[in-house]
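Hi everyone,

Forwarding the result from last night's run.
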Amino acid sequence: MKVTGLSGALGAEITDFDVMAAVSSGAEQNIRDLLNQHEVLCFRDQTVTPAQQRDLASIFGPLQTHPAYGTVDGLPEVMLLESTEEKPSKIEVWHSDMTFREHPPSVTVLKGVTIPPVGGDTLFASMTSAYDGLSAGMKAYLEPLYAAHDFAQGFKESLSEPGGRERLKDALHHNPPIRHRVIQTHPETGKKAIFVNALFTSHIEGVSQLESDSILRFLYQHVVLPEFTCRVHWQQNSIVMWDNRSTQHKPVNDFLPAPRALHRVVSEGFAPY
């Protein structure tokens, strides 16, 4: 196995390693340790079926489904994320996956199915490095705060489409706004991480709207400073895995009119955080 760092803050490219062989041989702890160390892992040259991808994600705990995405036939845990010229992706901002849930995913496993010839990279940012980069005074201010996260905010474009609110009415009903601590403690590494994102976080509780907007605007700019980020370039047969508890990511939608399709599986983890 060869491990090559992607940046000083986070990320590693893994080559000369068969991820499913490691899982079947009981060596999945090696993968967990690598993820805790690097937060984002890019495994190259992996031939993995959707069912195997599901099994890979399950080493991190029970799997979740998503109320708004289509799935692979017979595998409700394997979501299909597809972007075409006729129906481009609407997700273009930095975020952590599904923070509108009481227990958001701990780990996301993404596999490239259709890779555009140019473009379509994914940017990642380390929320642990971003936390470390805060002043002592800002850390103390943020520590006791909670923020609201809202499915309706994250899917406002889809909801505004003709018939969108009717199509997503069950998702809205089952995913009311939820509150999370602004500063989380990672259950495995013990590191502190910033846990607000521009896609799903609506406001900070217990402060004025002006104060909430100002603090969130600062945090959204702070967490994606270049020194906290890395960039993953997709290749055929690549699997990208990241810790949703301590990272944010942003798709770069610069590949149209070429299509792109990805399979995503998310794990809830063994312990809430």
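The chain has one domain: 2-267.

Cheers,
N.
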